[in-house]
């Protein structure tokens, strides 16, 4: 009998992991299509420490609210064109005319609140830099001492104490679309926490946490 392209993982892989034809175990969401799989295999959970990189992820997580991440990935190139590759200074210069223009751009998510929030957030990030830190450094200052070691998807929280604290901080600075669930998703995406399931071939790939979950 030929091997199926995807099967539920063998003993030890965990009940919520899918093993592909390449023998690698991934969570179901990472097997939606080749684009999502590549994102999971090469990018999700890897450390992102640049201002531009963190601002992009923060913005995309805000746009993702209420939608699937696959939808955001499909439109990612268009988002980059629309928001000048998420260069903080260039986005901060965008005004009402730009917002109106993007509301007619079917290649992105045409949500006025989210588009306007991206511009507002860029201006705040720009101001933070004049105060002695950039948004990436500030967010990374919230990195917890321990990460998670989930064996099932149910063991992964949608928010936690750190994301709630970071959300409060960002909201206090005026950032928008930075609720604790959105912030936790950001923390996962940029490697601030490792929520790869135990048994996933990406578990520990960031190199930031040891086998016991403690920060290196």
Automatic annotation (TrEMBL):
EC primary class: hydrolase
Alphabetically ordered keywords of this record: Glycosidase, Hydrolase, Metal-binding, Zinc
GO molecular function terms listed in the Swiss-Prot or TrEMBL record: DNA-3-methyladenine glycosylase activity; metal ion binding
Keyword Metal-binding: yes
Entry binding sites for Zn(2+): 196
Record-linked PANTHER family: DNA-3-METHYLADENINE GLYCOSYLASE 1, DNA-3-METHYLADENINE GLYCOSYLASE I
Protein name: DNA-3-methyladenine glycosylase I
Protein species of origin: Helcobacillus massiliensis
């Amino acid at each position: 009998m030929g091997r199926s392209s995807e099967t539920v993982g063998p003993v030890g892989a965990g009940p919520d992991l899918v093993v592909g034809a390449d023998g690698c175990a991934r969570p179901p969401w990472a097997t939606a299509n080749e684009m999502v799989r590549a994102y999971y295999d090469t990018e999700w959970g890897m450390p992102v420490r640049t201002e531009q990189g963190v601002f992009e992820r923060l913005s995309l997580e805000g746009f993702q609210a209420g939608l699937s991440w696959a939808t955001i990935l499909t439109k990612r190139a268009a988002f980059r064109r629309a928001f000048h590759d998420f260069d903080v200074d260039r986005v901060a210069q965008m005004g009402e005319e730009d917002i109106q223009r993007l509301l007619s751009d079917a290649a992105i998510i045409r949500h006025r609140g989210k588009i306007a929030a991206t511009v507002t957030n860029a201006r705040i990030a720009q101001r933070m830099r004049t105060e002695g830190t950039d948004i990436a450094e500030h967010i990374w200052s919230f990195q917890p001492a321990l990460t998670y070691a989930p064996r099932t998807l149910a063991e992964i929280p949608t928010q936690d104490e750190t994301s709630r604290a970071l959300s409060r901080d960002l909201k206090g600075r005026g950032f928008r679309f930075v609720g604790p669930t959105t912030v936790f998703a950001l923390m996962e995406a940029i490697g601030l926490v490792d929520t790869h399931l135990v048994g996933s071939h990406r578990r520990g790939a960031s190199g930031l946490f040891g086998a016991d979950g403690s920060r290196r």
